[in-house]
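ok trying this again, last paste got cut off
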Amino acid sequence: MHLRDFHYDLPADLVAQRPLPDRGASRLLALDPTGEGCRDLLFSDLPRLLRPGDLLVFNNTRVMRARLFGRKGTGGRVEILIERVLDARAALAQVRASKSPKPGCSIDLDGGAQLIVGQREGDLYRLGLIEGTFADLMSEQGHIPLPPYIQRPDDASDEARYQTVYARHSGAVAAPTAGLHFDEAMLVRLREMGVGFAEVTLHVGAGTFQPVRVADIDRHEMHAEWIDVNEDVCRAVHSTRARGGRVVAVGTTSVRSLETAAADGELKPFRGDSRLFIRPGYRFRVVDAMITNFHLPESTLLMLVSAFSGYRLVMDAYCHAVDARYRFFSYGDAMFLIRNEEDAALNQASSR
């Protein structure tokens, strides 16, 4: 398929710039490929879509205060986005400046710390911290790295709202946004009705916002993201399958985590980087249903959900969401998707 196949027109005023006052107050567009099509619901209706014995799989990554500001020795302004902390005083980061920094140059941060620019590694720079640790630096001087389509600086409210209530392991530069809709009351409600919970970790990287730059999507090279799927998750999935329940991924990051861990056909513990690119033609091995937000036009995440529920159904649903004025992207509304078994059968047959 081609990149243009995943384009849709989105009015700028539908891009949510702030979260709703309550986490669970968003709308929920439910897609059923078996014939019901689209249903306009509220996120509070989610228990109606789940069954006792289903397993919800959450991504428990925590967003770092990864955005820093400073100046080069020449005086030029610099914006830094820490992508991955390597050790106490070394990190990989995106560096935005009027001119690309050279290895060996220094950056004086607005809060007083100093960084030394090392060698470039792809789109990232290796940065060294002169004194202290990157953990303390980000805690004291860092900003919440809101996505580029949110046209405002971060503020105090983002500290809590651009973070899931179950976030545990720091390492992400973007939130697993499907999880932002869950509050403690919803988690209690689902647990009481017999829905099981499991947690994976995928540290979302800044590459999630990078555009696909090739017309033929099969030529796209996916960015790497660090994943941890442990033995407990695998046991929970196998137990859910044995009792006839469904595996419901909360977010595309949970989908990629589970499918990476089952890449050789069997779900097994996995810890490391993944470059799994899911697009139409992919055969899903683990996930039966998913909750997700609305994704950017021509993005790899839109390709993933199109592979999951069927290209035409998903693209028609996006047109409906625009017409019905759903709120889009990170602070926007949600979707509930069921795997298209007919597409899965076709994909499996075509792979033989």
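PB: full thing came through this time. Residues 67-141 form a domain with the Thrombin, subunit H fold (CATH 2.40.10.240).
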